[in-house]
Amino acid sequence: MSRHQPIRVVKGMRDILPPDSALWGRVEHVAREVFRAYAYQEIRTPIVEVTELFARGVGQDTDIVTKEMYTFDDRDGSSLTLRPEATASVVRSYIENRMHERPGVKKLFYMGPMFRRERPQKGRYRQFYQIGAEAIGSESPTVDAEIIEMLFVMLNRLNLQGASMLVNSVGCAQCRPVFIERLRNELEKIKDQLCLDCQRRTVTNPLRVLDCKVPEDQPLIESLPVLSGLLCEGCKQHFDEVQSYLNDRKIPFVVSPRMVRGLDYYTRTTFEIVHGNLGAQNALLGGGRYDGLSEDLGGPPAPGIGFSIGEDRFILALGSADNAESSVDLYIAWMGEAAFRHAAELARELRSHNVAVEVASDPVKLKKSLEIASRLGAPYVLIVGDDEIAQARYALKNLSNSEQQTVSREELFQRFAGPAS
Ligand code: HAM
């Protein structure tokens, strides 16, 4: 027995293991292809940022900033935070690298881990992954429609069924304050019946009451006014145009007037995609416009819109059905030292043609080799022994029907590596 207790993964964090990791890789690969088709380029920002970025960007009174951030003092006393999301970082980088000086809309995408210290449950982790995109530099509703179209292309290409999109407009710096005042007045009347957080939010940031998750508060929240009736002319027209462009593209959506999203930077268009397979954490992705964020972070006017897919939830929603892809094309079993050398040489040659090959690491009985190969999901096993080397012909066993045939080296390469170029 070991003298030590085994060390376990941090609560709310997890390992992504094979074969699931192959599905993660596939999702990221398809996302990259679609981003490329829509002229988005990759940005990689640090995982750690100064805490003030999120306090100012995401909002002082959001759940993320008040309760969920991993914040620590660096050795020089500055306060740093593991990024809870990436939009604020992308806009920081946009400003810092003077991207506004280059013409056109900047279209950027990212993939990577985010950190929020939430209560872990199915679909909710403390380290989770997002695939996101941001288009910065235009307030045109055409950009909203294009980014949502891109999202639909991505979901379709990944065969995601059963998702629905909710859209809303949360107004702008002109019309939102009018709504907030109205909301505050209504909240004052019912505040004593709400949870303590909402009582505080009534004073500090009434809009945040609308995304309270406490079940007892929900009937009261349902009775509060909605913003749609109070949108200013500009916001109303913007929202109408977004909807009409989405209709042109035959993208199905439902207007959801109570959706405010949990981050303070949003203006005008907001959207979420929810999925039935996910239980309580049903938001697969979220996004929206943030026309004032750059200025809030000390930058020039730079209206933008983006979204982030929760990759963990996306994988859960896909289910394991299309996870069947095997990571190995061919397993080579060998008998004897000379056969091992021969097998290693064959494997090197096949691998140089991008065939995924696994070679048995130890001399084991054929039966055991077949077992290992089938556990790996290899569709074929090649058997190499002294006789096979002498005749330059190998036994190739198809594991799905147990049929075995003899193939020459040439036939082997023809079958697995394709015609010689
Ligand atoms: P968000 O709604 O906070 O938006 O997060 C986006 C998605 O990340 C959620 O819909 C969910 O799928 C996933 N997610 C969030 N928290 C967790 C968690 N603890 N565990 C697993 N998945 C989680 C944003 O982050 C914005 N930056 C989106 C955006 C981009 N808006 C404009 N541009």
Question: How is the secondary structure organized here?
Answer:
Blueprint: H1 20-37, E1 41-42, E2 48-50, H2 51-57, H3 63-68, E3 71-73, E4 79-82, H4 87-96, E5 106-115, E6 127-136, H5 141-157, E7 163-169, H6 175-190, H7 196-204, H8 218-222, H9 233-248, E8 254-255, E9 267-275, E10 283-289, H10 293-296, E11 304-310, H11 311-318, E12 330-334, H12 337-352, E13 357-359, H13 366-376, E14 380-384, H14 386-391, E15 393-398, E16 404-408, H15 409-417
Parallel strand pairs: 1-5, 7-8, 12-13, 12-14
Antiparallel strand pairs: 2-4, 3-4, 5-6, 6-11, 7-9, 9-10, 10-11, 14-15, 15-16
Helix pairs in contact: 1-5, 5-9
Histidyl-adenosine monophosphate (HAM) binds at residues 85-87, 116, 118, 123-125, 128, 130, 132, 134, 262-263, 283-288, 306-308, 310, 312-313.
